[in-house]
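Q: Focus on the shape:
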Amino acid sequence: MLRLRLHALNDLHLTLKHVHWNVVGPHFIAVHEMIDPQVDQVRDMADDVAERIAALGGVAQGTPGALVAERKWDDYSIGRADAIAHLGALDVVYTGVVEGMRAAIEEAGKIDTATEDLLIGQLRDLEQFQWFVRAHLESAGGTLATGSATSETEAAARGAEVA
């Protein structure tokens, strides 16, 4: 369970950096500057999970090959794109990471309260980052521009329509 959280966090910080490098458009600087602190904090989260794995006697598999072989999601598919398109796609990414974290918390709570506590703290930060992303996608009435999109490409396309 922790190995998959490690993979999800490593994948997320690389995806966030990819967005940072490939975002364009009128919201460029706001998104560009919003993303870097998220990269740093998610990288720290991955380190904490890896150290927890080691503390429990496991081996933290942090190689790209292990991540790709074991992950349950596809690679981020948006290249150079408008900021709102990337944010729409990132909202879907964050939803997947948050859902995986919630499931891990439930599992950890049954066997190890220290691991559960670590993951709960990380969940709070991940949900805050998703809120930051969604703030760019929501109307004043609370309607999300990406609606019920379930894929990155669908969310990016809906976000691009609004931009």
